[in-house]
Amino acid sequence: MIQFKILKKSKKSSARLGILKTPHGEVETPALVGVATQASVKTLTSEEAQRTKTQMLIMNTFHLHLKPGEKLVKKHGGLHKFMNWNRPIMTDSGGFQVFSLGFGKDLGMSKILRKTSNTSIEKGQQPKLLKITDEGVLFTSYIDGRKIFLGPKESIKIQEALGADIMFAFDECPPPNAAREYVEHSLARTHVWARMCLKARKSKQALYGIVQGGSFEDLRRKSAEYIGSLPFDGFGIGGEMGVDKAWMFKMLKGTTDLLSEGKPRHLLGNGYPEDMPGIVRGGIDTFDCVVPTHHARHGVAFTSVGRLDMKKTKFLGDKKPLDPRCECEVCEHYSRGYITHLLRAKEVTPLRLLTFHNLFYFHSLMEALRKEIKKGKI
Fold this sequence. Notes:
By secondary structure, the protein is of the alpha/beta class. Helix content is 38%, strand content 18%. The chain has 2 domains: 3-289, TIM Barrel; 312-356, no CATH class. Strands 4-5-6-10-11-12-13-14 form an 8-stranded parallel β-barrel, surrounded by 5 helices.
């Protein structure tokens, strides 16, 4: 199980400083959780990931179920031993794949709608490659085309075999352009699944319930009140919350205000550097985001002067580190010019270097925000 202790609450916002205790160590919150989808932070070893200041990782239940399979992971002693990671681990439920491999794939969209959509997903509408029912979801494997059923009971069973410190309840992440009736129906189903997940749990692993509701403020409140009334060990906040960032942060605070103060709150799949202060002010304790690793694999470095596209030739003659203010081992030993050369030569090494730097930079930002809360500035 887990224990969560609030060390300091802000007088200016909903921000709080805390310690999340797990069977595999403590996490200073608020914190960014590193993404290790298939039991690996892409391009890094587990030892390297630890040196980026990563305190906790989140892994993907659905993808690990497909390969190598939870039985094999369990045979290796669980995720911690399998990947040689002695710090805390979360596993998501597979609920996000209901969207990403469904309407997300059909329409080529992410869960965050960048602009107003001309089309909407109506109640009863189904994606092409999976079928959503009240019992669960019938997926089509992207590996061999076989049918795979995943519901609340199946998700919990897989997560228990994987052995994470914190599991998430199975839910449906609705598409961002879903009509209100679709979201209402989806939310009712997610709430039923939440109860089923609690009933299905047999282990002592912590279990978080997930608040959904799309960008509809009243549905978010309804979900927060309902999920918050159930005996979960913590809470996840999923889905998208509108195009406008100001509205998203308002929705976020409105959601966390309704959740038990003494339990940890995790924001699923959000976290650009410019969003971090708003996320923290909204009362979030942990959040995960692929941004630092995904952008690194596309040659982008996050720095104190903004994002740098290291593929550009203008950096070839640059002897400075990626960020002169950064204390990571990449900035200590390698120049912008060298990294740009490697990228343009199609080497794999710069992907590792940029991933390491980006994660270290993101975690350093979170360290700074924790200090700001401690000083009473946020």
